[in-house]
Structure formats: C-alpha cells, structure tokens
Design a protein that fits this description.
This protein is of the alpha/beta class and 535 residues long. It folds into three domains: 75 residues, Alpha-Beta Plaits (2-Layer Sandwich), CATH 3.30.70.2700; 234 residues, FAD/NAD(P)-binding domain, CATH 3.50.50; 191 residues, no CATH class. Strands 14-15-18-13-22-19-21 form a seven-stranded mixed sheet. α3 packs parallel to α6 and α3 packs parallel to α13. The protein is globular, with a radius of gyration of 24 Å.
Length: 535
C-alpha cells in the first residue's frame, strides 16, 4: 500500500474529482488504481481559501515505479494495524469485574468478551435510554437522581457531551484507529475513521453504547445496572471481591480476583472508599471555569469567511491565553451548535457541561473557558482536597442560581455585578437557569484570570469577548481530581485492582478513555487465561 499526503481539493468537490486528483498525483490511468481509502481529512481555512486536505491510502500494481516518479508526498504506507496480545496462562477462579460502563469500561469489557473472559460489568446508573429519560426529567423539573444522571449511567459522562472523538494521546500500536473501528461496527458513521475532528453527538452515542453492551452480553458477558460498588474485599493486599448495592439498598458480595475501576471522574464516593483502604492515590491538577455561549453564525463567519458554502459543518474554535500571573486560560470541550447542560450529580450542588446532537444545529456555539488549578490552590495535604475544592465551587453555583444554572453576561462578570437582563444572545441551555453573579462562585484570583484570559482571546477571534456573551457556571468536572496509582503492568499496589480511564486519572475524553480500556484489557489478557468453568 502507498500513502498520499497533502492532497488538496475545494470543500465542494465530487468523488470523481477526488479520484481524478489521485490519478494525477501518482500519474497512472484509472484502470491501474486498484482501490483507495481515505485515512484523514481536515479543513484548511488559511488565507481565506477553504479546502480539504486529505491523506489517502492506495493500492496499485507497480508501487516501486510510482514511488520513483512521484513527489515526497507519496510514500509507503506506515499505518499500524492493532493487534490484541496472545493470551496468558494464569488461572482465574472467577470472572473479571469491571466497574463503570463509560467508554473505558465498555471497551475494556468488549475486548475481554471477544477474547472469551465473559466479564461482569457493574453500573450504578441506568441503561442508556432509561437514563436519557431520567436526565430529561431532571432538566424539566429539577429533581435529581444521584445514581443516574449526566455523570452516571450507561455510556458515562461522555454520552451527554458533544461526543468528540479526537485525541492527543500518542498511539504507536494503533489503539486510536481500533477504537474508531469499533465505534463504526456499533453503528457510527464511517466518516469518523478519517475526519480530523470526528464527533458523534448524544443522540447517536445512546444507540452505540447500547449496541456495544448487547455485543458484550452476546459473547457471554453480563451487565448489571442500578448496581453500586459499595466496597472492595481485600485480603493479603489482593482483591477478593466486590461489595455491591442494588437500587433497593440490598447488598451482595461478588467474588473476583480482577477488578477494573473505570468509575469516571465524578465517582467521589469510590475515591473515599479507596482512601479508607489506603489504596495509593495522588491529588492531581485539573481545571475549572465557565461555559461561554456565542451565536454559531458568528463563529462560522470568523472561521470560514463571509461567503462560506452551506455544506460545511458548524465551525469550532480553540483558544488559549496566558495571564500576567502565569495562569493558563483556554477553551475546552467546544460544542458547535450545542447546548449548555445541567450536569449535577450531588444534592444542592451544581455543575455544567456542554452537549451537542449529531446535527450540531442549535443557534449557539458553547465552550468551557477554564483555568488550571493545582494542589497548591486546593489547600491542605489530603489526597481528596481537589474533590472538596470542586464541591465548594458547585455548592456556590447552586446558591448563586438558587438551584438553577447561574447565568451572567460577560460585561456584568467583568463589573462583578449580578445580571438582570441579557443582550442579543439567548442561552441554549438544557435545564432551568437564573440570572446571577457567576463571578462570585470563584476565588477572586480565578475570576481575574478568567476575565483577563477571555479578553485576551479577542486578539485571536475578534468579537469573542463581546459584552453580551453568556457565561454559565460552574464547569468543574473537566477531569478527575485524583490519580489512582498503577504500575508498569497497569495494576494498583493492591494485586488484581486495575485503575482505568478518566476517573482513575489516565484519560481525558471519550477516545482516550476507550483506548485506556483497551490497554487494561491487554494487560489482563497477557497474564490470565479465559476460564470456561468459573465458580
């Protein structure tokens, strides 16, 4: 196979034009191009000229001759094909248990199920469709289910997000591509295999996670919903079982020697339980801030120009600034054509997130504008000090909005004045909101950093810091506030305990969490043999 890079075409082009451009670059007639595959496509809007830039794999008969006569942009394909490891030989007495059905847990479970391990997956929340109904009721009436909400339930926190699938994780063994291929197998559009910034949207993700769960069950696995990990049984520093609690409060002990903790970044009760057992953990840096909303058409014009073709998707942006004090302020989880959502998971505490549907067709773009905080900002030496810092902000947000999402214009944020009226931008929000003073939620040092950083973004995107930009608070769940320590075998100091994904501190999004799920499945498979006669 050969690879063509930097193949450029107008954003409005046909399949025939793409094929003709391939033939022109490699200088062969159509009949000699056996097949081709799009590996990557990105949008280049530099210089006011909109064009797609492709990386293409091709299959031809005379590769050596073509390589000699073509430019440096035509090379041998170096794409890595993912390989699951040869299975180990160590015997297990019980089935492996995976806690959490977010991307880390689901993809770990799927790979183990395909290899014959018949895993048992535990999820405190509901099945995806039931969960979606519960979340909609919460957005409508404000009555929170602390076990099944935007943070907890089948699909994890990523289900109620934009569904972005791009990642910055280095990938020498092909896990990224494998994750995308598994998504396609589960019903995702094939375009995610090559789009530079692929996304799925909440409506599509719900269908996909259900498909993955059904595949795990078909292969002999088991998925239990409304089931909370209450405790872990540890003997001689090894996992012996999981103490589970159902929706009625009844407990059960599930024996296992392998426990994968893919619990998500909001499993604060699990972190407390691990601390009780003295499982090694570390407080880690994360980021907090606000959601900002702009008209999507404004972002489109800034990114594409005045006469952009309608075939282009809703435009995104990425901005970052450094304040005079040295703090970094940056956009995160940008949702073109999206909604700000009430993402709370604890009583009398409020957190927000961003979400898009597949169509990305709401009138507003939203993004988190956040500032990094470190253990030095939290105060104290407790490993869970970051959790308490998040809670303090979320309780302040709940109070500021009187139980609703607190909303403020940027002008009022800068003046530290409660908003009483909005400007031209009407919020696109899932859940009730209340005009408030969002600035009061934060320590003044962070508020100043956010103000300075947002004003600085005006230099990157003119109009970004407009007075009537809508701010909502508080964006506090950007990543896990702790890291559950694991060694080179991806195992905790407690034998048989495998920290996994974003909640354990090893991922930062849907794709990276799913990739970490694959890594844990590989680590288990390298050591243990599937057993078809579990007790």
């Amino acid at each position: 196979m050969l690879k063509i890079q930097q193949l450029k075409l107008s954003v409005v082009h046909t399949k025939q034009e793409l094929e003709e451009k391939i033939q022109k670059i490699i200088k062969i007639p159509k009949k000699e191009l056996l097949c081709y595959k799009i590996i990557k496509r990105s949008l280049d809007a530099r210089g006011g000229k909109l064009q797609y830039v492709y990386t293409i794999e091709i299959k031809v008969k005379k590769e050596t001759e073509i390589l000699k006569r073509c430019s440096a942009y035509v090379t041998k394909s170096d794409r890595v094909i993912y390989q699951f490891p040869t299975l180990g030989e160590k015997k297990m007495q019980h089935r492996p248990v995976i806690v959490g059905t977010g991307p880390a847990g689901l993809f770990c479970g799927l790979m183990l199920a395909r290899a014959g391990y018949r895993p048992i997956l535990i999820e405190r929340g509901q099945r995806a469709k039931e969960r979606a109904k519960s979340v909609k009721r919460f957005w409508k009436d404000g009555i929170l289910d602390i076990r099944s909400n935007v943070q907890f339930g089948e699909g994890g926190a990523g289900t109620f997000s934009d569904g972005k699938l791009n990642t910055l994780v280095k990938d020498p063994v092909g896990r990224n591509r494998k994750v995308l291929e598994l998504f396609v197998e589960a019903g995702a559009p094939e375009e995610i295999l090559y789009e530079h910034k692929p996304h799925l949207g909440t409506d599509v993700l719900i269908q996909i996670v259900e498909h993955i769960r059904k595949e795990i069950v078909r292969l002999g696995g088991e998925v239990r919903f409304d089931t909370l990990l209450k405790d872990i049984q540890i003997e001689e520093n090894c996992v012996k079982g999981a103490v589970l609690e159902d929706i009625k409060g009844e407990t059960e002990i599930l024996s296992t020697e392998l426990l994968v903790l893919a619990v998500g970044h909001s499993a604060r009760d699990t972190f407390s339980m691990l601390k009780k057992h003295k499982v090694p953990m570390q407080a880690k840096a994360f980021a907090v801030g606000v959601r900002v909303e702009h008209p999507q058409e404004m972002i489109n014009l800034l990114q594409y120009g005045k006469e952009y073709p309608s075939v282009l998707p809703a435009a995104s942006y990425k901005v970052t600034r450094k304040t005079k004090s040295g703090r970094g302020v940056y956009s995160f989880c940008m949702c073109p054509g999206g909604y700000v959502v009430n993402a709370s998971s604890e009583a009398e505490a409020l957190a927000v997130n961003g979400m898009s549907y597949q169509a990305r067709d709401s009138r507003n773009a939203n993004s988190a504008m956040i500032v990094t905080v470190t253990p030095e900002d939290f105060g104290g030496t407790d490993v869970l000090s970051g959790v308490e810092f998040q809670r303090k902000l979320e309780r302040a947000a709940y109070q500021a909005g009187k139980g609703r999402i607190p909303v403020q214009t940027f002008q009022d944020f800068c003046q530290n004045t409660r908003s009483t009226v909005l400007g031209e931008i009407a919020p696109c929000i899932k859940g009730a909101y209340q005009l408030s003073n969002v600035r009061e939620i934060f320590p003044e040092e962070l508020s100043k950093a956010l103000e300075e950083g947002i004003l600085g973004c005006e230099q990157i995107l003119p109009g970004f810091a407009r007075k009537d930009m809508v701010l909502s608070g508080v964006e506090s769940r950007t990543s896990s506030p702790v890291r559950i320590v694991r060694d080179e075998r991806l195992e905790s100091e407690v034998c048989g305990l495998y920290p996994c994904g974003e909640g354990a501190g090893y991922a930062g999004g849907i794709t990276s969490a799913a990739m970490d799920g694959l890594k844990i499945a590989e680590a288990i498979a390298k050591t243990y043999a599937p057993c078809y006669d579990y007790r």
